[in-house]
Amino acid sequence: MKCEECLIFIEEHDELDLAMAGEAAAHLDTCAACRELYEEERREQEIYARYLLAVKPDPVMWEKLEAGIKREPSAPRNFLFHNWTKNIIEKSRANFALPIAATVLLVVGITFIVNHTKQPLNAPRGEAATHTKSEVAEREHERVISEPTFPNERADGLQIAKSAKLELHEHEQSDVTYLKGMRTNKRGALSLRGGRNVARHPLPPRRMHEVTPDELVSDAERLQLRAIAILALDIATRRPELDAAKVVQYEEALVVIDRTIKDSRLAVRANPNDPVAVQHMLAAYGKKIDVLEEMASDLD
Questions:
Q1: 198 pairs with which residues across the strands?
Q2: Helix-then-strand count for the chain, H and E
Q3: What is the mean pLDDT of residues 221-226?
């Protein structure tokens, strides 16, 4: 073994295997320089060993430390885990809940439209329910267009969510009223006599309301307005996180889109049976949703 190789193994002499240790020992017996380095290394290790023995703590000290640790009150693990999970849930809810809800509403609305586009656009208009839905969509559109896309401190963004929630509640109440009426008709048509249900004053079968193209367009428009309101609320609450230059670009694009939506709605109102005008209006709403979703993604 050469001196260069032996110097590498001097510090690890005690950890070498038998073959390598034998070669190193044979070289140390014949080389005075390597032997001197090995002796210095061994003396250094002995000094370290004596130092560790001198500073070794007394067992009594360990007993006192252990007793003191046992007396210290420890925080419950469940409480720490609860706070940790609570913070994660709250952060994820603020960042993702509103964009996900808006996306789900938009997908449901598009699916509903695709399933009913086979009906002719010149079909007869519905009864009072059709006019009611159209009026609701009209009011919702005028409110969204007239109000700023991003509410400031004076125009609180929570008002948008409250309006959308109120509209949804009105539709749910109408469904509940319809179901209650069906149960009342059934109770009036049947009487309990001798343990058997006997028909009395049979009612004519209820004719299911046939969905008209106007109702489909109104429902699609209402769903898109609701998605726009949800996205606008989410962006308004976190708007300070956006870059100022990007905010200006987004607002300029939204102004152009709002003008297109207004013009396309006037065209649909003037020609309600024109499918091209309807598609142009719904496409304008979809473009606005795309821009708002892009803004929301910049905040994530």
A1: 191
A2: 11, 2
A3: 85
pLDDT recorded at residue 127: 44
How far from chain centre, in Å, is Cα 67? Answer: 48
Pick from 98, 95, 65: nearest CA to 229: 98
CA distance 141 to 262: 9
Tell me the whole-structure pTM to 2 decimals.
0.37
Secondary structure, 3-state, the chain: CCHHHHHHHHCCHHHCCHHHHHHHHHHHHHCHHHHHHHHHHHHHHHHHHHHHHHCCCCHHHHHHHHHHHHHCCCCCHHHHHHHHHHHHHHHHHHHHHHHHHHHHHHHHHHHHHHHHCCCCCCCCCCCHHHHHHHHHHHHHHHHHHHCCCCCCCCCCCHHHHHHHHHHHHHHHHHHHHHHHHHHHHHHHHEEEECCEEEECCCCCCCCCCCCCHHHHHHHHHHHHHHHHHHHHHHHHHCHHHCCHHHHHHHHHHHHHHHHHHHHHHHHHHHCCCCHHHHHHHHHHHHHHHHHHHHHHHHHC
Residue 151 or residue 263, greater confidence: 263
Is 80 exceeded by the pLDDT of residue 84? no
- The 10s digit of each residue's pLDDT in 268-291 is 888 888 888 888 888 888 888 888
In the three-class reduction of DSSP (H, G, I as helix; E, B as strand; rest coil), residue 200 is classed as coil
pLDDT at 36: 85
Can you give the pLDDT at residue 148? 47
Domain ranges across the chain: 3-70, 78-189+210-299
Contact 289, 230 (CB under 8 A): no
